[in-house]
């Protein structure tokens, strides 16, 4: 007893007890504390991939292969990224109803949650462009004038000057961009769906894409009015001027012929 009392009175006894208490507390916390946020996010991502794989097996595997490797009926999805899935499925283009020169936009059959799960599974097959955030495609800080310049340089050849769309070769077409969600426009520039070339950040920066989206919103917004009246599809001043000359001169010639015919008839009588 005297030895035990002596040890208790040792100057390091309190330190040893404190260390043991801290070790026990840390061990109990590690054993019973809830998982960290990183672990929770990892678990949620794993669950999303599993659910996405189930959806993929039912709606996509028949064309793109059981592992996304592609087949004669559909291209490989390895490395296309979440943005491609969000665009194609989020606009109703996928799943495709039937093969053709180009898959048109149609009614969306998946919920956004299911689209996110499909995107998570496809992303797990290989790295690719991610779904953009609102900060990337939103109007804040955008330069509409610069966006118009970039659009006319890179996009108007197919989509025409204000994004009204147009016909291409072999049954293909550039779709009308009016009413398309800004996120989907951004994703299309990122991924280059179907006949469209891709514009990665090395070609068009994030700011450039934001400017283009702001320009399209400005020329196709609900409150947009054409100061010249009928816009004729927004084809531009050259095409619209040619239209005016052809039909205007045609109408004048028709009136001149009619007047000449009436004059000649009056002289004969």
TrEMBL record:
InterPro entries per record: bc1_cytC-su, Cyt_c-like_dom, Cyt_c-like_dom_sf, Cytochrome_c_Oxidase_Subunit, TAT_signal
Residue ranges constituting the Cytochrome c domain according to the UniProt record: 47-126, 142-263
Enzyme Commission number(s): 7.1.1.8
Catalytic reaction(s) noted: a quinol + 2 Fe(III)-[cytochrome c](out) = a quinone + 2 Fe(II)-[cytochrome c](out) + 2 H(+)(out)
Location(s), subcellular: Cell membrane
This protein's record includes keyword Magnesium: no
Key words, A-Z: Cell membrane, Electron transport, Heme, Iron, Membrane, Metal-binding, Repeat, Respiratory chain, Signal, Translocase, Transmembrane, Transmembrane helix, Transport
Pfam families: Cytochrom_C (PF00034), Cytochrome_CBB3 (PF13442)
Membrane topology: Multi-pass membrane protein
Transmembrane feature ranges: 242-261
EC class name: translocase
Keyword Transferase appears in the UniProt entry: no
Domain of life: Bacteria
Signal peptide region: 1-30
Subunit structure, interactors included: The cytochrome bc1 complex is composed of a cytochrome b (QcrB), the Rieske iron-sulfur protein (QcrA) and a diheme cytochrome c (QcrC) subunit.
PANTHER family in the cross-refs: CBB3-TYPE CYTOCHROME C OXIDASE SUBUNIT FIXP, CYTOCHROME BC1 COMPLEX CYTOCHROME C SUBUNIT
Protein's UniProt name: Cytochrome bc1 complex cytochrome c subunit
